[in-house]
Amino acid sequence: MLVTGNYPALAAAVRYGTHTDPATAFEAGLDVVLDGIAAGLAPGG
């Protein structure tokens, strides 16, 4: 898929992206999920 040239942004992200350790990635993802839940529970959310 990347060698087709149809997705240059994805190819660059794969090529030059950084790799975080699993614990950091999990914590960041959990923060996003919890922020979304909090926003949904807020008045008017």
Automatic annotation (TrEMBL):
Signal among keywords: no
InterPro entries named among the record's database cross-references: Repressor_TetR_C, Tet_transcr_reg_TetR-rel_C_sf
Superkingdom per UniProt: Bacteria
Domain Tetracycline repressor TetR C-terminal residues, every copy: 2-39
Keyword Transmembrane: no
Keywords from the named record: Transcription, Transcription regulation
Protein name in the entry: Tetracycline repressor TetR C-terminal domain-containing protein
Species of the source: Kitasatospora arboriphila
